[in-house]
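ok so for the tutorial part 2 we go from a plain amino acid sequence to predicted structure tokens. step 1 is just haveing the sequence, like this:
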Amino acid sequence: MKRITFWFDVISPYAYLAFEQLPQALQGHSCSVEYRPVLFAGLLRHHGQLGPAEIPGKREWTYRQALWQAHAHGIPMQMPPTHPFNPLPLLRLALACGPNRHVCERVLRHVWRGGADAADPARLAALQAELAPAREPGSDEVKEALKDATTQAIAAGVFGVPTLVVDGRLFWGFDALPMLRAHLERDPWFDTAWDAGAQAAAVAVRPARG
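step 2 — the prediction. this is what the tokens look like for a chain of 210 residues:
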């Protein structure tokens, strides 16, 4: 049985899409999936990057393209009225519950189905009451667990969400699911091209900073 780690942040529409499509991508394969909430903003800070929603033009394209992907794959999806929002309460709630597939489904659909405010206190309270976490989401223990998860993700080479890791290989983004499936099916491409393709291109110019 293959073990897959699914790193995600509820703030990412592509994490939601990948979560919904993952059962189809894994169909016919014996896999266990470990769901790991992580703070996307922490990854961005570590790598010195802006998020897609922070870049004019890219922000609008990201929303438009994510909604198209949902339409094309038959995945129900509606944008929340404000985005980005503070994902910490939902990430901590998932960790406090133990982030199994049911818990992750509820927190992701809380954001990406129905078009309601993901950060609305009344909705968050109702979701927490429904999920009945074993630990207090606002506790120092859970807060530290999320920080540790972000650190572990960075150590594993994760730079964005969603990222799926299997056999030490990272598959980033919703559109990487077919590639992940090809790996599980032992496509011979991976025997030669996985490393060769990435190593073939040398860096000729590095952008100036500051």
